[in-house]
Amino acid sequence: MTTLPHTSPRRGLNTLCAALLLADVGLAPGVSFAQEELRELQMPMTAEWQLVKDDRLRNIRTFARLEPGKRFRSFKVEAMVSASPETLARLMLDFSSYPRWYWSVRESRLLKQVSPTEYFLYLVHNAPYGMPDRDVILHAVVEPQTATQPHVLLRVRAEPDYMPLQPPLVRMPAEDMNIRFTPQPDDRILIESEGYVDPGGKVPSWASNFVQRSAPYGIIVNIQRMVEKEEYVRSNAPLPFPVFRHGEAPAP
Questions:
Q1: CB neighbours of residue 31 within 10 Å
Q2: Rounded Cα distance, 172 and 122, in Å
Q3: Residue 139 contacts residue 163 (beta carbons within 8 Å)
Q4: Under 8 Å CB-to-CB from 24, ≥6 apart: which residues?
Q5: Which domains are delineated in the chain?
Q6: 210/148 Cα distance (integer angstroms)
Q7: Could you please report the per-residue DSSP string of 75-105?
Q8: Residue 154 belongs to what H/E stretch?
Q9: 159-217: per-residue pLDDT in tens?
């Protein structure tokens, strides 16, 4: 499977800022690229979902909208991943692996496992150039499949007061999302996610919007790459909760 290399927000924003600066002084051959990026970042948002990216080759579609009372855009993703439910579950539960695939994470660890389906995680995100890095405590709750619910539902909410602040890191007040994993025929999984991220502190809206626009797509591309790795495909390690393939109904 062909995949795109991971691009951090720091590198992406540096490239954009450099292109805009050169465009201002008439030196950039890629002025049209800079103008296109700027138009997308400044695109007026409404409360209705607007298509941001439609990658038919990788089966990824991303959307954005601006909800009343929120500082930044919300996001939505619809994507198909070629993997068994067991393989994807092992990747998602390998919390120390997040720096290898989750958007601009340089540190991740499990703080507490409340039960087989409830976790508290700690993540540190690299911030765009010139801004302090961010940290976030995530409360993740899994709703396993049932006889009437064929998908696994993952609910994630930020818990900014769970532990003391860690200066100079800025605590994120929101990295909230609901993710639904629905097994499909031929060992494929439909991923549907909606969420909202507030990085906290002082952040230019265009910088946050760039991350909101780019991160969901980049995460899925990296998931598609990671689920091909032998450490997840061939693992026989037991899972903390059962998962079922398409057509395998769990016991009522």
A1: 15
A2: 11
A3: no
A4: none
A5: 9-233 (3.30.530.20)
A6: 38
A7: EEEEEEEES-HHHHHHHHH-GGGGGGTSTTE
A8: strand 152-158
A9: 999 999 999 999 999 999 999 999 999 999 999 999 999 999 988 777 777 777 789 99
